[in-house]
Amino acid sequence: MVDVTRIALAAEHAVEGSFARLGRYLAFAPISSDPEATPRVAELAEVLRADLAALGLSRARVLTLPGALPCVAAEWLNAGPAAPTVLVYGHFDVQPVKGEAWSTEPHALVRKGDRLYGRGSADDMGGWLSHLVAIEAWLKETGSLPCNLKLLLEGEEEIGSPNLARYMDAFPDAFDSDAMVLTDCENPGVDIPGLTVSLRGLLEVEVSVTSARSDVHSGLWGNVAPDPAMTLIALLARLVDEDGRLKLARRAIEPAWLASSREVPLNAEVIRSGARLLDGVDALPDRDLSPAAWAWREPAVTVLSTTFPAPGTEKNAIRKSSSAKLSLRIAPGQTAAELFDAVSAELRRDVPGGLAVTLTSLPGAASSWDYVAAGPAFDAADRAYQIAWGRAPLRVGLGGSIPFVALFGSRFSRLPLILNGVIDPDTGAHGPDESMHVGVYTRTVKANVHLYAELATALAKTPVVD
């Protein structure tokens, strides 16, 4: 019998040494949304290919398609035909940092206490690196893995995975597996692991209000001709309640789910810290729901931008039109069309002065995702986390939208999808001073060691006898 606890201990001892590797990867600054960074994304892909080969994985290769940033794939398939094949997915591209006020160098790994700072530290390089440390411990200690394993690292997740479906079509063998572990998800606390089972979708809408054929003098026509900017403000205010939350198309929350969601430690203190609120600014009141229900299960709205005159463009005129781009988060089980229709009906209803209101759905919509994490693979994950964290993971949701999750869910609906990661409420992903908690990372490494063993047993296949 293999002593999995001994392997997990070896992996834990390797954690500190893995930080140098993480820092080396972060230094590439592989910003997928920046065309000037495209060479760096490709360079890191080649480095990852070489590192995976050196780790002992076979068929380590850079996958490419015309017009797409690369993916990196590797595998270890020596566990035999009776053992399941587990795919581990992650992404190595990162968000831009331009315009953000970092207290550390964003593309270097800087340790402060129990946190490691750097763009991509938790989202998502730390997520999949936790698997590499676990894999390396298995191979060093035993020369093998308990299951067959495939690794797929994507280079354009942060721009919405626009070509991931093409990669699935072009390289089906890189995805063929019996279970999938998708990194890039959040834990509800540094001491409480999470298993993500729902995501809100994303819909962006442009709202335009027009009153005239041209701008006109505000001194001559103010108070007698309507101002589209003021009308737009009034219309947008219709969308939200007294707390500033979207009041349209809300979903009924199942009482049992609502009760269980109160276990999630998303309290006012966590919200204030994670959302970087100023002193004296309060989190929104719970009302009749839990914070988790508001953040994960209800639709939401944010103003992305407006055409209100910017500093330096002032003139004493009533502008002929005004517009705003809105980001709408789609609740699990809700469709983009349902939410668009609700917003459209509200903004077109009884428009003051009869101004022309148009709504346009913008490209890049992402579907919501809702999932029942039950069955042998999830029992295996619970056991692995119970050993490594001292408790099974909470079934949690994410308020954000991750297009690749919905894609995996639709393409591989018959397979168990285990969504884990190293993000926590103070990570600050997509913002300044993104960081990863060392304890979360360490426990995730240990959980991954046990997860491979537990999945190997739970999903073992009956050998074919000739």
Quick summary of this structure?
This protein has helices at residues 4-13, 15-26, 38-55, 121-142, 164-170, 218-221, 228-237, 255-261, 268-274, 291-296, 336-348, 376-389, 403-411, 438-458, and strands at 58-63, 71-76, 85-91, 110-112, 115-117, 148-154, 179-182, 194-199, 201-210, 216-217, 300-306, 317-318, 321-330, 356-361, 369-370, 394-398, 417-419, 435-437. The protein is α+β, with helices and mostly antiparallel strands and 466 residues long. It folds into two domains: 4-198 and 368-458, Zn peptidases (Aminopeptidase, 3-Layer(aba) Sandwich); 202-253 and 294-361, 2-Layer Sandwich (Alpha-Beta Plaits).
Overview of the structural elements:
The chain has 466 residues and is α+β, with helices and mostly antiparallel strands. It has two domains: 4-198 and 368-458, Aminopeptidase; 202-253 and 294-361, 2-Layer Sandwich (Alpha-Beta Plaits), CATH 3.30.70. It is 34% helix and 20% strand. It contains 14 helices and 18 strands. A six-stranded mixed beta sheet has the order 1-2-6-3-7-17, with helices on both faces. Helix 1 crosses helix 4 (121-142), helix 1 (4-13) runs antiparallel to helix 14 (438-458) and helix 2 (15-26) crosses helix 4 (121-142). The radius of gyration is 24 Å and the shape is elongated.
